Amino acid sequence: MEDPKTDIPSVILNLTTTESPDIQQETVLKYMTADVSLEHPVCSVRPGPNSRDKVLKIYQWYRVLSPRIGLRVDNVVFDREREVMYVEVVQMFKLFFLPVDPLPAKLVTRLELRKIKNLYYISRQEDFYHTIDFARLVLPPIAPLVWFLLTFGAIFSVVATKVAQQLGIWTPSVQAVPGDREELYEMDNISSPRDRPFTTQTRA
Predict the structure, then answer these.
(1) What is the Cα–Cα distance from 18 to 66, expressed in whole angstroms?
(2) Is the N or the C terminus of the chain less surrounded, counting Cβ atoms within 10 Å?
């Protein structure tokens, strides 16, 4: 990539939504180093000789599991000095054997780049999902249950903290006032990346 921040959305779309396995393979070979590594909640590829071949197989399996994928790149941050990129993505992924509609699942991908002859190549990929987003990705029907459990966890934490503070444990000397400093968080109405449509297929 000559300009990673500009180029990475099309690279991601060709890796994930293209209808051509040849384009997907060409993208992996063109933009990833031969020793690229991959960290994902359900798989891991360590860096090594020709580890790129394993990463390619994982991307191919990704398309076998979900023949049609919708994906949207919402935000890209490139730290040129550290050669690290963060990409916020929302995807619509549906396992082919599940008779349910997909739900949007958000993830943040961290990419480590390596500069070779003035071009940037992906040398490491890490994918990060929130718990509920991962549930939406792999098994959409359980997403409400996961949301309930997370909400219960928050309520339990609040109640347990109040009980602990009544016992004098971890109590601030001055209690926060509800609504204090709200003026710090006022924002103008701005359009959200979520308003943008998904890309479902890319053609050569």
Answers:
(1) 12
(2) C
Strand partners of residue 110: 86, 126
d(CA 39, CA 114): 17
Whole-number Å distance between alpha carbons of 119 and 116: 5
Tell me whether residue 197 is in a domain.
no
Say if residue 101's pLDDT is above 60: yes
Residue with tokens 């990539």: 1
Residue 93 DSSP label: -
- Do 46 and 16 meet the contact criterion of CB atoms below 8 Å apart? no
Does this model's pTM top 0.90? My answer is: no
Residue 134 CA neighbour count, 13 Å, CB half: 9
Domain limits at 51? 4-138
In angstroms, the Cα distances linking 87 to 3, 60, 198 are 14, 21, 15
149-189, pLDDT tens digit by residue? 999 999 999 999 999 999 999 999 887 777 666 666 666 66
pLDDT value for 196: 72
93 and 159 assigned to the same domain = no
